[in-house]
Structures are given as C-alpha cells and as structure tokens.
Amino acid sequence: MTQPDLPAEGKPDYWDEACRHLVKKDRILRRIIPRYPGMSLQSRGDAFETLARSIVGQQISTKAAAAVWARVAQGVAAGAAVTPSAVLALQTDALRALGLSQRKAEYLRDLAHHFDQGLLNVQDWPQLEDEAIIAQLVAVRGIGRWTAEMFLMFHMLRPNVLPLDDAGLIQGISRNYFSGEPVTRSDAREVAQAWKPYRTVATWYMWRSLAEPQAY
Q1: Which residues form the HhH-GPD domain (predicted)?
Q2: Are residues 123 and 71 located together in one domain of the fold?
Q3: Phi, psi dihedral angles at 39 (to 5 degrees)
C-alpha cells in the first residue's frame, strides 16, 4: 500500500510530535524521517466514498482502479459525489456495466445499504476505539481487516494503527530492520513496539522508504 507524497497542509495535529517521538525512540526512523520534510499523511474524502473506492480497487492495479472508479463515479453520480442513495438507485447489472465484477457490484450495494440504513454508527466513530470501528466495518461484505485499517489511517487519521497484513509495511520492516530477510508478523509486531503510540506514522514512513535505493 502506498500513497503519493503530499504537502503537509492539513496534516494530523499529532504529526510533528509523533516524528519527534519516533526519532528519539527508533534508530532507523531517526535516519528515514528527515528525508521527507513537509510531507505527511492526509485524510481522503468522506467515509462512504473512501470505503467504496477501496472496494472498487481490490485486487487490481492502482491505474486500473482509478479508471474503473472514474467510470463508476460518472455512471452513478454524473461526476458529482458518489452517495449511498445514488449507488442504491442502480441495480447490480447496471453497476457491472460500469466495469465492476458481479461480486464488487454486490459489495458496493451492500456498503451503500449499510450507510443508507444507519447500520454503521458513523456519528459515533470519533469516540470509538479502533477495534470497535474495525468490527463494524468488517461486517460489511467486501471489507476485510486491511481495508478497515486503511480507512482508520487515511480517513480517520488514527495515530496508532499497525496493518500487519499490509505487504508494504512488511517489506519496509524487512528492508530497514532485517537486511531484506523474511519477516514474520511477530517480528513486525516486535519492531513496532518502539513506535507506539504512533504506529500509523511509522508505517507511513516505512512505505515512503520503499522508494529509496537499497543499502544492502
């Protein structure tokens, strides 16, 4: 999982403190963080559209996902915001005609149904713990733990998410802490102990570091 580098306008209010903490606590991040001045995680879109895009983009390339989403957005909302009611106004076959698989079309409608019927307590999410939000999200067809964790990171800007199923995180830890050797979830969790309570920020820098030349 990667995100384009973004300017730090609108960065999370904890970002600078998190960087100071990580530089102090972790020798690897002490080297990596200064290489990306003026960059930070930034929130993406509204809740429904963020999750809808995640479903559309599953198991296809970033370029293909962007193309399919553009067709979906045009077909569902004629270029306006994609809303639950707009999605529910189209049947599965109509969504498939926009480039979605049968399964993704069904997933998208199920997500829209959850939002439309108030089955997700969106208004309560700011007060809920991360795991409580994940539990609600994974009840929606097509949303697994990784998608829920990306939502917590990129939409809700939660500071302490550790997405152990993310290949980029594992690759970053392998590269920076184990000289490229294979890394288990247990290894990654142990490395990330020093990152608390800012594991989201450290993960973001692991992703950034993958664009750097290898040192070994």
Answers
A1: 56-211
A2: yes
A3: -125, 150
Buried/exposed code over 139-173 (b: 16+ C-beta within 10 A; e: otherwise): ebebbeebbbbbbbbbbbbbbbbbbbebebbbbbb
Check whether residue 75 and residue 149 sit in a common domain: yes
Provide the 8-state DSSP code for 213.
P
For residue 184, which of 193, 194, 174 has the smallest C-alpha distance? 174
Inter-residue contact 158 to 195 (CB < 8 Å): no
pLDDT higher than threshold 50 for residue 75: yes
User: Are residues 71 and 109 both part of a single domain?
Assistant: yes
Phi-psi map region of 59: left, alpha, beta (phi>0 left; psi -120 to 50 alpha) = left
- Residue 214, pLDDT score: 62
Note the pTM of the prediction, 2 decimals: 0.84
94 with 35, same domain: the answer is: no
User: Model confidence over 188-212: pLDDT tens digits?
Assistant: 999 999 999 999 999 999 999 998 7
Give the domain extent around 21: 15-41+161-209
Distance CA 70, CA 100 (A): 12
| Cα radius of gyration rounded to whole Å, the chain | 18
